[in-house]
Design brief:
The structure holds 2 protein chains of 2 kinds.
Chain A lengths: L5 E9 L5 E9 L4 E5 L6 H8 L7 E6 L2 E2 L4 H7 E4 L3 H4 L5 H11 L4 H14 L15 H13 L5 E5 L7 H16 L3 E6 L11 E5 L5 E5 L1 H4 L12 H4 L10
Parallel strand pairs in A: 3-8, 3-9, 6-7, 7-8
Antiparallel strand pairs in A: 1-2, 1-4, 4-5, 9-10
Helix pairs in contact in A: 4-5, 4-6, 5-6, 6-7
Chain B lengths: L14 H4 L2 H15 L4 H17 L4 H7 L1 H17 L4 E5 L2 E4 H27 L2 H12 L7 H31 L8 H29 L15 H22 L1 H7 L1
Antiparallel strand pairs in B: 1-2
The chains are: A alpha/beta, B mainly alpha.
């Protein structure tokens, strides 16, 4: 078994209102595509914000390559790229190019290298033709691709996506699934928090379900957990309800 | 999608876009100062040059007037106030209100000057990226003691970046309130409260999310600095700008043009 990239040990984060996450234990291995599913308010976003020390736990620890993420926050944030749910408040650049350059500039990478990396990443995400555009004028799907490009340019080992399909239409969602799946096939570790698993469950290698009380309720292969999704507050994919193990068009 | 106005940056490759932002700032200051010492002839020369530049960056006159409509209304009020209050030779009178020749001329001149300053500002903001403004602010503030120039610069940059978003949120909130007949409230304090509090809440929440997103991408004040554009075009533009300013002042003080316009 390979060494885990990320280890979460008895992680608890309590809010004064009473909600939060409780006693979460997980191991994330290189190349995995993990779906973090659960109903609204189950603590998916809270959990992923702990992965690169954006928030501090009430108790427990997150370790990256065996070291606590809080011991080297810049390393943790460079290694774990995070794509937030609301693209509009994540985008800070005046143009698409500037937005992608924001991360490398924070890492004090020399300007010529930034130009090279940004150009490559824009080409990879099919955004080169939009390099001079104001991000506010992009479509929802383009904005989502831009936020992923802003992360990819920092060469992360893990990409964490928080509800990436929120506010996206069907073609944009489909295109996004293709991009994320391709990244995973290239060896990128993916963690995706979502309550809508239908679009992406066939690409995932593992599914983790959180219950409404912020506890980890199931962890396993998607095909094994398909029948338990509805009981855990997650919509069961249509093909599973029709009695298939995989979508008919994939068998 | 945030509403884009002419005062937001429009990407392009014109000379104005490629000028060093420090030179551009100096040019804006020079033209503004020259305008306030210029007469009609100088203002006309400036208007012609600015119109040409506005055209080259892809903004048409109707677009420009549409964006400045409220400002033009303000200028109209200023013009009327001057025309009706400055003593001189009466041109016409209505119900005891007299407009004078001197008042009309002064009003037109002041309105024209302010309009041209706005046009200059528009050209500057439409061709300058907030990131460049940030770098210029940082550069100008560097010699000032006790001023954290990097912090000030990033605050300016974020303000410019998020102003359209805040305005868009304010518009959405107003629509949501009005959709539930909020506009029927007679009490102005209640109306302001219904619209202001949700906008403030949304703005603070967006600011919070923005901080998290910036933190997640390792934001710190110690970043790769932006490079300023260098090259002969900056020197040429400064020379052309200085020439225009001298022409504006010279025209306004030449007796021939004074005779024509007065």
């Amino acid at each position: 078994m390979p060494r885990p990239l990320l280890e979460i040990d008895h992680l608890t984060h309590e809010f004064t209102a009473g909600s939060g996450i409780y006693d979460i234990c997980l191991r994330v291995f290189p190349g995995e595509f993990i779906l973090l599913a659960g109903p609204n308010g189950s603590g998916k976003t809270t959990l992923i914000r702990h992965l690169n020390a954006l928030v501090r736990p009430s108790s427990g620890e997150v370790r990256l390559h065996g070291r606590p993420v809080t011991s080297d926050i810049v390393f943790a944030r460079k290694t774990i790229g995070m794509v937030f749910q609301d693209a509009d408040t994540q985008i800070v650049g005046d143009t698409v190019f500037d937005e992608v350059a924001f991360g490398p500039e924070n890492l004090k990478i020399p300007r010529p290298l930034i130009r090279e990396k940004v150009t490559q990443t824009l080409a990879r995400m099919d955004l080169s033709h939009l390099a001079d555009r104001n991000p506010a004028t992009l479509s929802g799907g383009e904005k989502r691709r831009l936020t992923i490009a802003g992360i990819l340019v920092m060469d992360p080992e893990i990409i964490v996506l928080d509800e990436p399909f929120a506010n996206l239409d069907y073609p944009s969602s489909k295109a996004l699934v293709g991009i994320i799946s391709e990244l995973n096939q290239e060896g990128q570790t993916i963690i995706m928090a979502t309550h809508e698993v239908e679009d992406v469950i066939t690409c995932a290698t593992r599914i983790i379900i959180m219950d409404s009380k912020g506890r980890l309720s199931r962890d396993g292969r998607p095909e094994d957990l398909l029948g338990h999704l509805a009981a855990c507050g997650v919509k069961e994919p249509c093909f599973s309800r029709m009695g298939y193990k995989k979508p008919p068009w994939q068998t | 999608m945030a509403n884009l106005t002419l005062f937001t940056f429009c990407a392009g490759t014109t000379t104005l876009h490629r000028l060093d932002v420090r030179h551009k700032t100096a040019l804006v200051c020079m033209v503004s100062l020259a305008l306030f010492t210029s007469g009609f002839a100088g203002c006309l020369a400036c208007f012609l040059v600015l119109s040409l530049l506005t055209r080259t960056i892809g903004i048409s006159l109707p677009q420009l007037l549409g964006q400045l409509k409220w400002f033009i209304l303000l200028l109209g009020i200023m013009f009327a106030a001057r025309a009706l209050t400055i003593p001189g030779d009466p041109v016409f009178s209505f119900s005891g209100i007299v407009a004078t020749k001197e008042g009309l001329a002064q009003g037109a001149l002041v309105a024209m000057r302010f309009f041209l300053v706005m046009m200059t500002g528009l050209l500057f903001s439409a061709t300058t990226r907030p990131a460049d403004l940030k770098s210029a602010a940082q550069w100008f503030l560097k010699p000032v003691p006790f001023v954290p120039e990097k912090q000030v610069a990033i605050m300016i940059s974020l303000f410019l970046r998020f102003l359209p978003l805040i305005l868009s949120q304010a518009g959405q909130t107003a629509d949501a309130v009005n959709a539930r007949c909020g506009n029927l409230h007679k009490n102005p304090i209640r109306r302001i409260r219904c619209q202001t509090l949700p906008v403030l809440k949304k703005t603070f929440m967006a600011a919070d999310r923005l901080c998290l997103a910036m933190d997640a991408r390792c934001y710190s004040e110690d970043r790769t600095d932006l490079e300023f554009e260098t090259g002969g075009r900056n020197t040429l533009s400064m020379a052309a700008g200085t020439g225009l300013c001298l022409l504006m002042v010279g025209l306004s003080h030449s007796s021939f043009f004074k005779m024509i316009f007065w």
